[in-house]
Amino acid sequence: MSRPMPAEFRIRKEDTRIDLLKKRGLSKIQLAYASRHPLGMTNYFNSLIACAYGVNSAIFFNHVSFWIKHNEERKMNYFEDRYWTYGTLEFLLDQYFPYLSVSMLRTAIDKLLDDRIIIRGNFNKHGYDQTTWYSIDNNRVKRIFDYGHIDLLIL
To answer: What is the average pLDDT value for the chain, to the nearest integer?
Structure first.
């Protein structure tokens, strides 16, 4: 015999989707994300990178890869013979990864940086701007994974 659900977790007809998410204990950032993306977002990742660096790193790698491809198509953010994407940790968490904590995202990025799978740069126009830029070292990825059709994985 199951116990009745506590009243604060019961779903009422008048509850909105946000009300239901609040009952689940989501943070303010997660609730703001849910209101901006009512259907959520689907994250993809490469299983080889996930095996080597973890799922969070693989998801971040795919994010960087997507935006580099986007920038390449638009001929934007090209510095030092490669395309780049950028974002502060706070921006990335708020806009793309509300399910990660700051330390989880930082760890995921650091794992990729440590093996030089992704590289970090600074192409900000103002010295006070601390936004971090990221790119992918395609040659390094090819060497580490010996992946012949690397273009399917990244650019």
So the answer is: 83
Instruction: Compute the distance between CA of residue 81 and CA of residue 135 in angstroms, rounded to an integer.
Output: 11
Residue 136 in this model has a pLDDT that exceeds 70: yes
Please list, in sequence order, all residues whose beta carbon lies within 8 angstroms of the beta carbon of residue 111, skipping any fewer than 6 positions away. Answer: 53, 54, 57
- The partner residues of 118 in beta bridges, in order of sequence, read 136
Higher-confidence position of 37 and 105: 105
Q: How many CB atoms lie within 10 A of CB 13?
A: 4
Q: What is the pLDDT of residue 149?
A: 44
Q: Write the CB contacts of 96 (distance below 8 Å, at least 6 apart in sequence).
A: 41, 63
Output the furthest CA–CA distance in the chain (Å, rounded): 66
Residues in contact with 106: Cβ distance below 8 Å, sequence separation at least 6, in sequence order? 89
Residue-level pLDDT at 13: 54
Residue 111, burial from CB neighbour count under 10 angstroms (0-12, 13-18, 19+): buried
For the chain, the straight-line distance linking the first and the last C-alpha, in angstroms and rounded, comes to: 55
Residues paired with 136 in a beta bridge:
118
Q: What backbone torsions phi and psi does residue 102 show, to the nearest 5 degrees?
A: -55, -45
